[in-house]
User: Fold this.
Amino acid sequence: MKKPEKLIIDGKRLDGRTPDELRPLKIQAGLLKRADGSAYVELGENKVLVAVYGPREMHPRHLQQPDTAVLRCRYNMAPFSVDERKRPGPDRRSVEISKVTREAIEPVVFLELYPKSVIDVFIEILQADAGTRTTGITAASVALADAGVPMRDLISAAAVGKVDGTIVLDLNKQEDNWGTSDMPIALMPRKKLITLLQMDGHFTAEEFKNALALAFKGCEQIYEAQKQALRERYSIKPEGE
Amino acid sequence: MYEIVSSVKRDYIVDLARQEKRVDTRALDQNREISVETGLVKPAQGSALVKLGNTQVFAGVKIERAEPYPDSPSSGVLMVNAELLPLASPTFEPGRPDENAIELARVVDRGIRESGAIDLDKLSITPGEEVWAVFVDIHMLDHDGNLIDASALAAIAALWHMKTEGIEGWTLPEFPIRKKPIAVTIAKINEKLMVDPCLDEENVMDARITITTMEDGSICAMQKGGIGCFTPEELELAYELARSRAPELRKHIE
Assistant:
């Protein structure tokens, strides 16, 4: 991939979006038969599938917690999800993403209701195009809700960043590669609490503030789409329609 | 990385936080005593021992020839690795780095990489074939909290005092280091923010955020950790804390 001369031309991004526009978003809940809960999310060229198993008995048993359930998250990139084949299995990046994903989701789950249990969240990235960790978190919280796990709220996640000096929402691959900064954020939208925040690149104090505000705006749209997906899954459709 | 804490101790620390007090009598925006020693190990091109109160972290830097990454054929390679040695804490076990060690190494790595502290483009030998690789290995020696800030400080201190004599084939006048990014970790306990958490505080904190800033106060890396949450207002306050504490740490790298 060659670096484009400009990433923003006349206020529009190379894929035609305005700086505060998300990529096309599609969320579907409950599409896997065996899993207790599942979700599929497409965000632009990202395709992410999440399955939730549990609450179920924790094995190995020495990892059981007497007073609470344990939340386990596994973020996994398929070897075919990126241009150059990714070696299967966890690398350092996946281990870190699995950890921050768990920390992003755990605040909303009533784990204390299921002592000695485990809730497994498996996040599979089928196609990657920047923003897979936030897409994975968005999908995981829908899958948890689909599994009927009691939660305080959903978690909505999006990345913001700086590209050619402009703060933009939901970076695509080119913007992630050639932009100045990238800041993935996850929120509990109802209470406006931040449960995941990472950042690399360069922000002034002012840019950080603006980026944070833009992330909130993006997450709100994602939140609506998440709720809509769950409504579609569980609304009763009258016969003959 | 969390240890089991008695509820008496937990309640005590949480209640102290409510009164804006700390278990070791520090102010909320006060670091523990900092000490930085460099050049302690001969075979390493750079090394540093950092103490933050009782916490001790050792960083060593080795330079070797390596193949460049295909997407940056004429840039040097930076590798940061962290070891939570079993000698540093009764809760650390031998074995491959776990998620805490990996996160620690990657947070330190991002601070150095994203700040452009090392001019990696100068570390080319034969573009596309051979470049200099900089290996930063960080060993925890004594874990009394805030390993991230101690590790980041040890890494940048070791890199700042590199000796390139004795590297076969090295032709640059000096090691191309030009900036001093500083990581400051802020813990949130009972709605209060405090810098440089000690182990007791880490064990009861709701969440932490590490903000790495540059000389001009701009941000080059951030990482939230722990299962709690932050409000936007708390993040702004955390940034102010990080920016105001960083110069005190930075002055130890001279």
Q: What stands out?
A: The longest strand of chain A covers residues 46-57. The longest helix of chain A spans residues 205-234. Helices of chain A lie at 92-105, 132-146, 173-178, 205-234. The domain at 17-232 of chain A is CATH 3.30.230.70 (Ribosomal Protein S5; domain 2).
